[in-house]
Protein backbone atom coordinates (compact mmCIF):
# COMPACT_ATOMS: atom_id res chain seq x y z
CA UNK A 1 0.00 0.00 0.00
CA UNK A 2 1.29 3.52 -0.82
CA UNK A 3 0.11 7.07 -0.15
CA UNK A 4 -2.41 6.97 -3.00
CA UNK A 5 -4.04 3.79 -1.66
CA UNK A 6 -4.48 5.55 1.68
CA UNK A 7 -5.99 8.61 0.02
CA UNK A 8 -8.44 6.68 -2.14
CA UNK A 9 -9.74 4.79 0.89
CA UNK A 10 -11.35 8.00 2.09
CA UNK A 11 -14.17 7.32 -0.39
CA UNK A 12 -15.22 3.84 -1.39
CA UNK A 13 -16.83 5.01 -4.66
CA UNK A 14 -13.58 6.42 -5.97
CA UNK A 15 -12.45 4.69 -9.20
CA UNK A 16 -9.07 2.98 -9.17
CA UNK A 17 -6.11 5.03 -10.38
CA UNK A 18 -4.40 3.73 -13.48
CA UNK A 19 -0.76 2.73 -13.20
CA UNK A 20 0.11 5.69 -15.41
CA UNK A 21 -1.83 8.18 -13.29
CA UNK A 22 -0.35 6.72 -10.10
CA UNK A 23 3.19 7.02 -11.49
CA UNK A 24 2.62 10.61 -12.60
CA UNK A 25 1.06 11.62 -9.30
CA UNK A 26 3.84 10.03 -7.29
CA UNK A 27 6.46 11.70 -9.45
CA UNK A 28 4.90 15.11 -8.89
CA UNK A 29 4.53 14.67 -5.16
CA UNK A 30 7.97 13.16 -4.53
CA UNK A 31 9.57 15.56 -6.97
CA UNK A 32 8.24 18.41 -4.86
CA UNK A 33 9.49 16.81 -1.65
CA UNK A 34 12.94 16.28 -3.16
CA UNK A 35 12.96 19.79 -4.59
CA UNK A 36 12.27 21.31 -1.18
CA UNK A 37 14.85 19.05 0.46
CA UNK A 38 17.52 20.43 -1.86
CA UNK A 39 16.26 24.00 -1.36
CA UNK A 40 16.06 24.44 -5.10
CA UNK A 41 16.63 27.89 -6.58
CA UNK A 42 13.60 27.47 -8.89
CA UNK A 43 10.54 29.62 -8.44
CA UNK A 44 7.61 27.96 -6.61
CA UNK A 45 4.20 27.77 -8.23
CA UNK A 46 1.18 26.71 -6.21
CA UNK A 47 -0.52 23.63 -7.71
CA UNK A 48 -3.22 21.21 -6.76
CA UNK A 49 -3.23 17.56 -7.72
CA UNK A 50 -6.37 15.45 -7.65
CA UNK A 51 -5.63 12.14 -5.98
CA UNK A 52 -9.02 10.45 -6.24
CA UNK A 53 -12.11 11.57 -8.19
CA UNK A 54 -11.98 15.11 -6.88
CA UNK A 55 -12.60 14.08 -3.30
CA UNK A 56 -9.02 14.14 -2.05
CA UNK A 57 -6.90 17.08 -3.20
CA UNK A 58 -3.22 17.37 -2.41
CA UNK A 59 -1.97 20.94 -2.52
CA UNK A 60 1.63 20.82 -3.61
CA UNK A 61 4.07 23.50 -4.71
CA UNK A 62 5.62 22.33 -7.94
CA UNK A 63 9.12 23.71 -8.26
CA UNK A 64 10.22 24.15 -11.81
CA UNK A 65 10.29 26.95 -14.29
CA UNK A 66 11.31 25.70 -17.71
CA UNK A 67 11.16 28.35 -20.41
CA UNK A 68 10.07 26.62 -23.59
CA UNK A 69 7.20 26.95 -26.03
CA UNK A 70 5.48 29.81 -27.75
CA UNK A 71 4.07 32.79 -25.81
CA UNK A 72 0.96 32.88 -27.94
CA UNK A 73 -1.62 30.11 -28.33
CA UNK A 74 -3.17 29.60 -31.74
CA UNK A 75 -6.76 29.05 -32.76
CA UNK A 76 -9.02 26.08 -32.28
CA UNK A 77 -9.08 25.60 -36.06
CA UNK A 78 -5.29 25.23 -36.14
CA UNK A 79 -5.43 22.83 -33.20
CA UNK A 80 -8.05 20.73 -34.92
CA UNK A 81 -5.93 20.55 -38.08
CA UNK A 82 -2.96 19.22 -36.10
CA UNK A 83 -5.07 16.52 -34.46
CA UNK A 84 -6.54 15.49 -37.81
CA UNK A 85 -3.03 15.16 -39.26
CA UNK A 86 -2.00 13.08 -36.24
CA UNK A 87 -5.04 10.86 -36.78
CA UNK A 88 -4.02 10.15 -40.37
CA UNK A 89 -0.59 8.97 -39.23
CA UNK A 90 -1.86 7.05 -36.21
CA UNK A 91 -4.39 5.13 -38.32
CA UNK A 92 -1.82 3.33 -40.47
CA UNK A 93 -2.52 -0.41 -40.01
CA UNK A 94 -0.09 -2.45 -37.93
CA UNK A 95 0.29 -6.08 -36.92
CA UNK A 96 -2.34 -7.18 -34.39
CA UNK A 97 -0.83 -8.59 -31.17
CA UNK A 98 -1.88 -12.01 -29.94
CA UNK A 99 -4.10 -12.35 -26.88
CA UNK A 100 -1.30 -13.91 -24.82
CA UNK A 101 1.16 -11.10 -25.54
CA UNK A 102 1.74 -7.76 -23.78
CA UNK A 103 1.68 -4.21 -25.06
CA UNK A 104 4.81 -2.26 -24.10
CA UNK A 105 5.21 1.47 -23.49
CA UNK A 106 8.36 3.23 -22.33
CA UNK A 107 8.04 6.85 -21.26
CA UNK A 108 10.42 9.42 -19.81
CA UNK A 109 8.75 11.61 -17.16
CA UNK A 110 10.34 14.91 -16.19
CA UNK A 111 9.39 17.03 -13.18
CA UNK A 112 11.28 19.75 -11.38
CA UNK A 113 12.97 17.10 -9.27
CA UNK A 114 14.51 15.20 -12.15
CA UNK A 115 13.94 12.49 -14.72
CA UNK A 116 12.24 9.12 -14.30
CA UNK A 117 11.98 6.26 -16.82
CA UNK A 118 8.77 4.23 -16.64
CA UNK A 119 8.12 0.97 -18.50
CA UNK A 120 4.71 -0.69 -18.64
CA UNK A 121 3.68 -4.13 -19.88
CA UNK A 122 -0.08 -4.74 -20.14
CA UNK A 123 -1.78 -8.00 -21.03
CA UNK A 124 -3.27 -7.70 -24.52
CA UNK A 125 -6.54 -9.36 -23.50
CA UNK A 126 -6.36 -8.11 -19.91
CA UNK A 127 -6.48 -11.59 -18.39
CA UNK A 128 -3.02 -11.67 -16.82
CA UNK A 129 -1.07 -9.37 -14.51
CA UNK A 130 1.13 -6.82 -16.19
CA UNK A 131 4.27 -5.10 -14.94
CA UNK A 132 5.41 -1.54 -14.29
CA UNK A 133 9.04 -0.57 -13.69
CA UNK A 134 10.34 2.84 -12.75
CA UNK A 135 13.93 4.07 -12.45
CA UNK A 136 15.57 7.46 -12.11
CA UNK A 137 15.99 10.23 -9.58
CA UNK A 138 13.37 8.69 -7.30
CA UNK A 139 15.12 5.34 -7.26
CA UNK A 140 14.01 2.06 -8.82
CA UNK A 141 10.70 0.29 -8.21
CA UNK A 142 8.82 -2.61 -9.78
CA UNK A 143 5.25 -3.74 -9.32
CA UNK A 144 2.42 -5.73 -10.84
CA UNK A 145 -0.43 -4.27 -12.87
CA UNK A 146 -3.63 -6.08 -11.95
CA UNK A 147 -5.63 -7.94 -14.63
CA UNK A 148 -8.31 -5.82 -16.24
CA UNK A 149 -11.54 -5.24 -14.32
CA UNK A 150 -14.35 -4.24 -16.75
CA UNK A 151 -16.06 -2.38 -13.91
CA UNK A 152 -13.20 0.13 -14.00
CA UNK A 153 -14.23 1.31 -17.47
CA UNK A 154 -11.88 2.24 -20.29
CA UNK A 155 -9.16 4.03 -18.35
CA UNK A 156 -7.21 0.84 -17.72
CA UNK A 157 -8.67 -1.15 -20.61
CA UNK A 158 -6.32 -3.51 -22.49
CA UNK A 159 -5.67 -3.54 -26.23
CA UNK A 160 -8.35 -6.16 -26.94
CA UNK A 161 -11.06 -4.05 -25.28
CA UNK A 162 -9.93 -0.84 -26.98
CA UNK A 163 -9.99 -2.67 -30.34
CA UNK A 164 -13.77 -3.01 -29.96
CA UNK A 165 -14.36 0.73 -29.63
CA UNK A 166 -16.04 2.58 -32.51
CA UNK A 167 -13.77 4.05 -35.16
CA UNK A 168 -16.30 6.73 -36.05
CA UNK A 169 -15.19 9.83 -34.08
CA UNK A 170 -18.70 10.95 -33.14
CA UNK A 171 -19.70 7.48 -31.97
CA UNK A 172 -16.44 7.14 -30.07
CA UNK A 173 -16.97 10.50 -28.35
CA UNK A 174 -20.37 9.29 -27.14
CA UNK A 175 -18.82 6.13 -25.70
CA UNK A 176 -16.07 8.12 -23.99
CA UNK A 177 -18.61 10.52 -22.54
CA UNK A 178 -20.51 7.64 -20.97
CA UNK A 179 -17.41 6.09 -19.39
CA UNK A 180 -17.40 5.96 -15.55
CA UNK A 181 -14.17 7.96 -15.38
CA UNK A 182 -15.64 10.83 -17.39
CA UNK A 183 -18.94 10.65 -15.55
CA UNK A 184 -17.18 10.76 -12.18
CA UNK A 185 -14.95 13.61 -13.33
CA UNK A 186 -18.02 15.65 -14.21
CA UNK A 187 -19.92 14.67 -11.07
CA UNK A 188 -17.19 14.97 -8.45
CA UNK A 189 -14.59 17.28 -9.97
CA UNK A 190 -16.93 19.87 -11.47
CA UNK A 191 -15.32 19.71 -14.91
CA UNK A 192 -17.03 19.76 -18.28
CA UNK A 193 -17.73 16.62 -20.28
CA UNK A 194 -15.19 17.80 -22.88
CA UNK A 195 -12.44 18.11 -20.26
CA UNK A 196 -13.31 14.65 -18.98
CA UNK A 197 -13.08 13.20 -22.50
CA UNK A 198 -9.75 14.97 -23.15
CA UNK A 199 -8.42 13.49 -19.93
CA UNK A 200 -9.57 10.00 -20.92
CA UNK A 201 -8.09 10.32 -24.41
CA UNK A 202 -4.66 10.99 -22.86
CA UNK A 203 -4.97 7.72 -20.93
CA UNK A 204 -5.73 5.67 -24.04
CA UNK A 205 -3.71 6.97 -26.99
CA UNK A 206 -0.42 5.32 -26.05
CA UNK A 207 -1.69 1.74 -26.35
CA UNK A 208 -4.85 1.98 -28.49
CA UNK A 209 -4.94 0.04 -31.79
CA UNK A 210 -4.25 2.21 -34.87
CA UNK A 211 -7.87 2.65 -36.00
CA UNK A 212 -9.03 3.59 -32.49
CA UNK A 213 -6.01 5.82 -31.89
CA UNK A 214 -6.89 7.73 -35.06
CA UNK A 215 -10.51 8.05 -33.92
CA UNK A 216 -9.37 9.29 -30.49
CA UNK A 217 -7.42 12.14 -32.09
CA UNK A 218 -10.34 12.90 -34.41
CA UNK A 219 -12.78 12.98 -31.51
CA UNK A 220 -10.39 15.24 -29.58
CA UNK A 221 -10.22 17.60 -32.55
CA UNK A 222 -13.90 18.49 -32.08
CA UNK A 223 -13.56 19.52 -28.42
CA UNK A 224 -14.33 23.16 -27.77
CA UNK A 225 -11.56 25.29 -26.33
CA UNK A 226 -8.54 23.40 -27.67
CA UNK A 227 -5.70 25.70 -28.69
CA UNK A 228 -2.66 25.40 -30.93
CA UNK A 229 0.88 25.86 -29.61
CA UNK A 230 3.31 26.29 -32.54
CA UNK A 231 6.47 25.35 -30.61
CA UNK A 232 6.74 22.88 -27.73
CA UNK A 233 9.57 20.72 -26.40
CA UNK A 234 9.02 17.29 -24.88
CA UNK A 235 10.89 15.59 -22.04
CA UNK A 236 13.39 14.07 -24.48
CA UNK A 237 14.28 17.47 -25.93
CA UNK A 238 12.38 16.93 -29.17
CA UNK A 239 10.76 20.08 -30.53
CA UNK A 240 7.38 20.00 -32.23
CA UNK A 241 3.94 21.53 -31.97
CA UNK A 242 1.18 20.98 -29.44
CA UNK A 243 -2.55 21.10 -28.86
CA UNK A 244 -3.75 22.00 -25.39
CA UNK A 245 -6.91 22.21 -23.30
CA UNK A 246 -7.31 23.87 -19.91
CA UNK A 247 -8.17 21.41 -17.15
CA UNK A 248 -9.16 23.19 -13.90
CA UNK A 249 -7.69 20.31 -11.88
CA UNK A 250 -4.25 20.34 -13.48
CA UNK A 251 -3.50 23.23 -15.81
CA UNK A 252 -3.13 23.32 -19.57
CA UNK A 253 -2.83 19.69 -20.70
CA UNK A 254 -1.04 19.48 -24.05
CA UNK A 255 -0.47 16.72 -26.59
CA UNK A 256 2.84 17.10 -28.43
CA UNK A 257 3.43 16.09 -32.06
CA UNK A 258 6.34 15.99 -34.47
CA UNK A 259 5.90 18.93 -36.83
CA UNK A 260 6.97 17.00 -39.93
CA UNK A 261 5.75 13.43 -39.38
CA UNK A 262 2.78 14.34 -37.10
CA UNK A 263 3.71 11.43 -34.83
CA UNK A 264 2.53 11.66 -31.22
CA UNK A 265 5.52 12.49 -29.00
CA UNK A 266 3.95 12.71 -25.55
CA UNK A 267 2.33 15.30 -23.32
CA UNK A 268 3.11 18.11 -20.95
CA UNK A 269 1.12 20.05 -18.36
CA UNK A 270 1.60 23.78 -17.85
CA UNK A 271 0.55 25.69 -14.77
CA UNK A 272 -2.72 27.61 -14.98
CA UNK A 273 -2.39 30.82 -16.96
CA UNK A 274 1.24 30.25 -17.94
CA UNK A 275 2.84 29.44 -21.29
CA UNK A 276 6.27 28.74 -19.81
CA UNK A 277 5.89 27.17 -16.36
CA UNK A 278 5.86 23.41 -16.94
CA UNK A 279 4.95 21.17 -14.04
CA UNK A 280 5.11 17.84 -15.86
CA UNK A 281 6.54 16.61 -19.16
CA UNK A 282 6.26 13.21 -20.88
CA UNK A 283 8.14 11.75 -23.83
CA UNK A 284 7.23 8.42 -25.39
CA UNK A 285 10.46 6.54 -26.06
CA UNK A 286 9.20 3.23 -27.38
CA UNK A 287 5.99 1.29 -27.93
CA UNK A 288 5.62 -2.29 -29.10
CA UNK A 289 4.52 -5.82 -28.29
CA UNK A 290 6.34 -8.27 -26.01
CA UNK A 291 5.88 -12.00 -25.51
CA UNK A 292 6.36 -11.75 -21.74
CA UNK A 293 6.01 -9.03 -19.11
CA UNK A 294 9.51 -7.70 -18.50
CA UNK A 295 10.97 -8.32 -21.96
CA UNK A 296 11.64 -5.25 -24.10
CA UNK A 297 10.62 -5.52 -27.78
CA UNK A 298 13.29 -5.03 -30.41
CA UNK A 299 13.18 -1.60 -31.97
UniProtKB/TrEMBL annotation:
It comes from the Bacteria. InterPro entries: CU044_5270-like. This is CU044_5270 family protein. The lineage of its organism: Bacteria, Bacillati, Actinomycetota, Actinomycetes, Micromonosporales.
